[in-house]
Description:
The protein is α+β, with helices and mostly antiparallel strands. The chain has helices spanning 2-21, 40-81; strands spanning 25-30, 33-39. It starts with a helix and ends in a 13-residue tail after the last helix.
Amino acid sequence: MTFAYVLMALVGAACAVFALQNMDPVVIRYIGWRVEGMPLALVILLSVLGGLVFASCVGLLRRWKLRSRIRQLEAQLAAQQRPGTPSPPAMRLE
Length: 94
């Protein structure tokens, strides 16, 4: 656990040094928007945060689909284990 704290401190220190060295103001243009004066480090860190959020949403969607498939297969297995109950046809999830 101590290793994790040291690693987090090192990553935090690296981010702080990065932010302090990249304080130059930049202009951001996107479609019709224009934002001036944001520090370069803030723009980069916000971009990384946006990428993490997007990747997490994609991962959560995949996890939700897999859990749904597991529940479906468990229900099929339970139905097959009961005597005299026909099992429903298997559905493919792609």
